[in-house]
Every structure is written in C-alpha cells, then in structure tokens.
C-alpha cells in the first residue's frame, strides 16, 4: 500500500503531479515554471509551441531549469499527425505506410530516429503509437493513423514502434485503449460506441495492446469510447472496469495510464471537465492530458482544486491520487535514467523517413499514358481535416512537383463543383489529381468522375486509405499524407 503523508501540501502536490497541461507560446510561461516548482510533474507541447527544433530544445531547457525530471509530452505520431513538423509536414511516414510495407525492422528504425529527434528537443514522452485496428474503413479519426486493419500486423508493428521509440530514451504511450478502430464517430465531437462482443474485442482490439505491454511500453492512453461489452455505462477513460479491472488486472499492465484529451466533447461535453478529471483518476488513470484547447493557468488550478476537493469529500481515496502521482514520478525518473544511456548510442539515420515513404508507394498503371515531361496542373481535393490532424500542416504533392517540374501550379478544391472547377483551372496541362480517403467523400468521387471523363490521362494520387478501386491513367497510393509521402509520389510521377 502507498504510504500517504498527511497535510494539504502533499495532497496539492499530488493533484498537480497527475496533470499534463499545455500552454500557449514558444517560451516557458512564468506560470508554468511556478507550478512546476509547486509539484507539476508534466507539461505537454502542441503545434502552437513549435517553430523550429532548436527553439523547442531551448523551451524544454527553460522548463527543466525548474525540475530536471519534468516529463515533456508531445503528440508526435508522425505521418498525418505531427507537431514537431507542424508547419512543413512530417519527415516520417505514418503508421499506415509502415504497415503497408510490413517490415517491423523498418518501423523500429523509423520510430528510433523519430525518438532521437524528440530527445534532441528535450521531449521525454510521446503520445504514440496508435495501436488501433482500423476495422471500420469509414473511421473518421483513426484511418491512416493505424498500422492497418489486420490484427497481427498491427500488433507486430506496435511492438516494433515501442521498441524503437524507447531505445532513444523517449517513453512511448500506446493508444487508444481499449481500441478506437471500429467506430464511425470522432470522440473529439461525441462519445463513440463500439458494439462488438467480448470475444471479438479480445481477439482483435486487445491483441496489439498485449503486444505493446510485452514490448515494455511505458505508458498507455485511454480512449473516450463506450464499449458495452466491457462497461455499458461509462466510456473507457472513466471506467474502472476498463482501466483497473481489464488493463491493470487482466492484462497485468503496471505502467502509466494517460487519458486522451479531456477537453474532447466525449468527456467535457457529457460530464464537464472537472468532473471528468476526477472520474478518470478514480477509475484508474494516472495522468490527465489537457491543453489541446484550454491552455491557461486557470484550467490547471481548477483541475487541481477539483481533485483536492474530491479527496476531502471522500469521493476519491487519497491513496488513489497518491498512487497516480507516484506512477507519474516513476516514469519521470525512468526517462532521466534512460536518456543518459540512449544519448551515447543514438546514431542519426536521417534518410530513413524518405526510404520508408518510397517503399510504401503502390503504383498501378491502368492503361497507356504518356510520360510526364513538362509542367502539370496539380488539383488537390481537400476534405475537412479531423481535429487530431488539424488544418495547419500542409500536405499533397504540389510543392515537390513545382520543384521537379518548373512551371507546375497547384489549386485546391472542395465541394460539389470541385471537378468542373479543377478542369477549368488546368487548361490544357496534364492533371495530377490528389485525393485523401476518396471512399469517404461523395463529392470527391464525383470530382474524379468529371476529371477522368474529360481527361483520361489524369494521374491520381490517393494520400489516405486506398479503399476505392484505383483509377486514372496512373494511380499512386502513398498510404498517408506526410511530406515525405508527397516527395516519394512526386518522384514516381516524374520518373515514370
């Protein structure tokens, strides 16, 4: 049993220790540094905190001036979801591209190099990888963030990713437990419900998490999803049956349990932020992810006070809060010790991201087509991005084709008239049509219908899940929209 020191100061420090808040700005705010001195053990970085790698390193150095073992977390999946390369697009392909190659050693090398870059920036906890089995191709929030739809493939690449990331001294946080793949609702907006039986859950969703635990993942992130086979009343993040009975008890997991972002509507909208945070810790979570939206000192103080009040009222045992805080501090110590050993062994592998993106390409020639030997028109059909991806990070093949084929221009289109507008903008030039999850967007399919009827020599580049039948004179599936995926696709277009 955890020994509990008496006194409100200990309780307050424990309440601060379980929070992983974000903040605004590219330097360390005074309020964050002050709260670190009072017991805050973690902070989280988002795209708004990033300008350059050097700037992030300076920022984390400022933060650690207050506490050497401060956990610095980031949501750096690479691929479509990137924070470190938020303004340029990722230098690493995402999970789906790595799953398409299906070389666990390549996945391990990519994760190791990504981890090395994060460690250079002072990041010590990465909220990745996604271990979700993307069983529903219409999933609006996972998609290419998953390694694939095959349980065995997802499991072996999840394990390889965890091993690669943690060999760099950065803790991996495997997500979204107990599995967010078989849903058609985004938990940023509402509570997804996964109506699978318990046998399917154990044979499909849980298998990659077992693999991650065996690989030594230091953290696991909960999902705000309702799985009636496990708990018919509460979503995973708030469910003792899911976090304590299943994850801790049955699966034997002893590391840190982190919540997904608590401002997401699945929690904040249904329960309220403060109430949701108390329920999550009481259910068995150890660390609270908050700050993707609310990133001010008042939020941190209100959550701290809510946790303290829950202990004082008897709603939550002080032992549970103390245990959660102890697990956060234990991971903080692990990152310090591991970072020292990993730094000496971290040889750079700077080209591995592009190597992986090239290997992930699937190029199909649908019929005779003249080689591309001059400027083209790139028509990018842009869907509304989900919140995890965001709308800041660029994607596509336009910039690289503009470099390789001078005179090339790019236009972005959306909506029911997208095909007609793109055709008019292209004029007589050869068209490269870039889509993202064509199968999920009727307007996008219609746009390609218009282009291909008028211009059958159009080259189609699918940068999402290639669920729709390939079409176009040449069809290129990149299996993700990272910058390096766009580079690899542009190379394939030019070289034929």
Structural summary, described in words:
The structure is a single chain. Helix 6 packs parallel to helix 7. The relative contact order is 0.13. With 496 residues, the chain is of the alpha/beta class. The protein is built from 17 helices and 14 strands. The strands form three sheets. It has a six-stranded parallel β-sheet with strand order 2-3-4-5-6-7. A six-stranded mixed β-sheet has the order 9-14-13-12-10-11, with helices on both faces. Helix 3 (53-64) links the parallel strand 2 (42-45) and strand 3. The model is unreliable at 1-6 (pLDDT under 50). The longest helix has 28 residues, at 318-345.
Overall shape: it is: globular
- Spatial order of the strands forming the largest sheet: 2-3-4-5-6-7
Average the pLDDT over all residues and give the rounded result: 93
Query: Uncertain segments of ≥5 residues (pLDDT<50)?
Result: 1-6
Strand percent estimate: 5-15%
Radius of gyration: 23 Å
Please give a handful of descriptors for the protein shown.
alpha/beta, 17 helices
Please provide a brief summary of the model.
It contains 17 helices and 14 strands.
List the helices and strands and how they pair.
Elements: H1 8-17, E1 19-21, H2 30-38, E2 42-45, H3 53-64, E3 71-74, H4 95-101, H5 104-120, E4 125-126, H6 151-167, E5 171-177, H7 198-214, E6 219-222, H8 240-250, E7 256-258, H9 265-271, H10 273-283, E8 288-290, H11 297-313, H12 318-345, H13 352-360, E9 362-365, E10 376-381, H14 398-404, E11 409-413, H15 418-426, E12 430-435, H16 442-454, E13 459-462, E14 474-477, H17 483-495
Parallel strand pairs: 1-8, 2-3, 3-4, 4-5, 5-6, 6-7, 10-11, 10-12, 12-13, 13-14
Antiparallel strand pairs: 9-14
Helix pairs in contact: 1-11, 1-12, 4-13, 5-6, 6-7, 9-10, 10-11, 13-17, 14-17, 15-16
